[in-house]
Amino acid sequence: LSDGKYHKQIRIVENATGFGYEKLFQEYLTEKVSEVWVEDPYIRQVHQASRYLLYNFLRFCEMLVKGPCKVKTIHLLTSYDEGSGKIQQMTVLEEIKQSLSNYGVTLNIDFSSSIHDREIRFNNGWMIKIGRGLDYFKKPQGRFSIGYCDFDLRPCHETTVDIFNTKHTKKM
């Protein structure tokens, strides 16, 4: 894949399937990728329905561990959950951090109260901006419905994915 002047846009329409993380990110996850930055204010668990956000982040981390990239560090910038959810958020993120360390991957977690945009950057220059962040999948119909485990089969919310190479984006 050339990293020349590059901008690709993917429109995911409402209820579309076939957009699991591997399908979306695989061509940008070359062997050179050793560091990943995830900025998403909503990697937290405000209530029952939001627990999928933490699962989505875990699923994204699993994809990185499987390769072909050799990820050593993942940087997560998110916002704190409100109220009592903050303890649960920290507990889950610590569990993911510990689990990643078993695979030789360091998870650095930082919090910002002003973060708004969602983007994922790889140290090979690729940057992916998803309108809904990692949370573009619809809630499964049930725990034993098709698409519960395989995100390629999970219906999506409508969103836009923009892919850039940072060599060709202007710093302001």
UniProtKB/TrEMBL annotation:
Gene3D superfamilies: MITD, C-terminal phospholipase D-like domain
Domain annotation MITD1 C-terminal phospholipase D-like: ranges: 18-165
InterPro entries, A to Z: MIT_domain_contain_protein1, MITD1_C, MITD1_C_sf
Species per Swiss-Prot/TrEMBL record: Motacilla alba (White wagtail)
Protein name: MITD1 protein
GO biological process annotation, one example: midbody abscission
GO cellular component terms, A-Z: midbody
Taxonomic classification: Eukaryota, Metazoa, Chordata, Craniata, Vertebrata
Annotated Pfam families: MIT_C
Listed PANTHER family: MIT DOMAIN-CONTAINING PROTEIN 1
